[in-house]
Every structure is written in structure tokens, then in C-alpha cells.
Design goal:
31 strands; alpha/beta; 6 helices; about 30% strand; 9-stranded parallel β-sheet; Pectate Lyase C-like; 10-stranded parallel β-sheet; single chain; 2 domains
Amino acid sequence: MGNRNFLLTFIHVVVFILPFILAGRNPDCDDTGNQPGNPHHPELFAAQFEAAPPKRRGLNECKAVNAIDKCWRCKADWADNRQALADCALGFGQGTTGGKGGDIYEVTDPSDDSVDSPKEGTLRWGATRDRPLWIIFSQDMVINLKQELVINNDKTIDGRGAKVEICNGGGLTVMNVKNVIIHGLHIHHIQETTGGMIAASEAKAGPRSGSDGDGICVFGSTQVWIDHCWLHDGPDGLIDVTMASTKVTISNCKFTSHDKVMLLGADATHSEDKIMRVTLAYNKFAEGCVQRMPRCRWGLTQVVNNDFERWGEYAIGGSNEPTILSQGNKYVAPDGANYKEVTRRAEATEAEWSQWSWQSVNDVLENGAVFKSSGGDIPTTPEMITPDTTPVAELTAVAGVLDCKAGAPC
């Protein structure tokens, strides 16, 4: 009887208790073939990922896409190292360093009451100094310039970290100087101004004629970079580059609500503009842009990875034998049968303009857009930006003014 009871007890332990003991063994000591996540057991391996989905990118996490933005945008310490931006220019404006190496000057006063003898603390005071300066803004500002703002050599106007509007007054003039960066400004509703005694340096103010209302006028200047600005609504051009200006890059800008958007080259009588070299990269020409994106005279223009959305009349035009290389852009024609052509030649017969080198390379043409090429192949130069095959919508997704906060990526 005793042996029978012992046998029954032993069987009970084996059948009912031992499995629980084995199940509770330390998994680190178990057969790896039975471990969740082991690729030799596909069902368990897949179940591990179904149970723990990968982390998603945060909505506010920085994602720089184009080559210029990758240089600086996703660095959280940008506000402590602002002048690193000067190493990021590409295209024909590469090497433009603006106020790098100079002092940081903070604009604290949005007024512009004394254009002939600017007050310290104002934008005009900083822009007219005779030494390199990196100009920043202490807070959000709306600046109504009484006359055009004449910018001296070796200056950076850096709007990052504040919302800075230049509007309802004069525009910016970069005249007969070198090495200027304009970044992060919202420039709109610029007006014609009468001229007068206006400071252009620390020397005594001199007489200047009236301004025709350009947002930014680049005249006879070299090494100029305009980046991440938003320009719209004015009586003349949003950006003009003329009078033998060269080594210019216009990038990551947004253009809206304007007729004659951009002029490269003064007129038919100024053949000195043959030396002009301008790069347009990663810009967005959006709602309400009618024509001149750009209009070119003379010179060489690289138009690379820009987004053109339903222009009013045409996108790219020119006269006087300009050379235009269009690479990797997206051209979306307006609806309707008219104005499907991207290009427009002026002041020449077909026999003449057919010799001008205007080439389209890997452009995306949508909604019936047509790019009429002419002339021969255009050799690339080392300064030119290599076209990016990433969709243009991604490359230009943050064109215009960025919302930058100190301590976080832009």
C-alpha cells in the first residue's frame, strides 16, 4: 500500500508539476532555438516586431533634404555657431562668407528714422559699417525702411531665430560691394522711394536717386548669397541682378504673388553682364507668379532642382544670347490651353535665338508643360551644383523663411 501511494505521488509530480518548473527556467539558460526573436524560428521572430513597432520620426524632428540645408539645418547648436552658415553656400556663389570672422551685431531697434546718419541698434547702422559684421535680431520685427537699405561689404543679415519682415518701404540694395549673405527675411510690399542723402558706409552720406521698388537689388557686386527668404508683392522685381554682378546664388527662397519676379541682366546695352554667373537652386515659385523666373540677358544661369507651379505667362525667359542650363526642375504648367511653354525668347528672330544655348536636362514637365531647347550642349563647371534626383517637392519643401528656435534644429 505504501509503495502504491509513493508511485501515485511520483506520477502526479511528473504529470502536473514538472511542466511548470521547466517553463519557469531562466531564458538566458534555455535553448536559443526556442527564444523569441531567433531568426531560426520565423514565426517568433516576426511576432517580436509586430509586438514592438519601430519608433516613428517626431513631427518636429529636423529633416534636411537638399545639399545646402544638410550643411547646417539639423544642428541644434546653430544659434551658438551662427557663422558656420557661411561655409554652406553652393553654386556660383560658393565661397561667399558674408560677415564671417566679424563681430555679432544685434538689431534691437526696428526704426529707420535717420537714413543719412543711422542710429546704433538699427539694421541700417549695422549694414553700413566698414568692417565685417554678422547681423542678427533680438526679437521679432517689422521694419519699414524710409529709403533703400544700402549694404556694405562683408555683411551677413541673418534672420534666424526671429520673424523679420522688411515691408511697406524701401528694399535692400547690394551695390558695388562683395561678400554679402541675406538669409531668413520676409520681404514684401516694397515701395518706390524718392532717394536723397543716404548712408552707404561710415563715410559721410551721399546723394542717391530714387529706387524703383525692387525687393533685393544686386548691382555691380560679386559673391552674393540669398537663402531661405520669402519675397512677394512689389512694384518692380523681387530680385534684380545687374551691371556685371557675378558669383551669385539664390537658394531655398519662396516667391509668390508677383508679376515680374526676377531679372538677371540690365538691358540690351549693358553687355558687361556677359560675365554674370548665377545659380538658382531649391527655390519654389508658387501661387501668383506670372513671369521672369528668371528673365536673363547675357551671362550663364544654372537653374537646378527648383519647383515651378502654374506660372501666369511663362517661367524662364531671355534675350541677348543668355546661356541657360535647366536641370532636374519640376515645371507644372497652368491649366488651360495657353501658356504651356516654360520658355520665352524676346527681341530676336528664330534664326537668332535658335543659336542660344538653352538646355533642359532631366526636368519633370507636368500638365502639358513644354521646354523648348535650343543651341548646343552646355559644359558644366566645378562651381555648378550637381542635380539631386530626390523629388523636387522634397528638396523645396521648406523653401522660404524657416521657423528657427535657439537650442533646437531649424
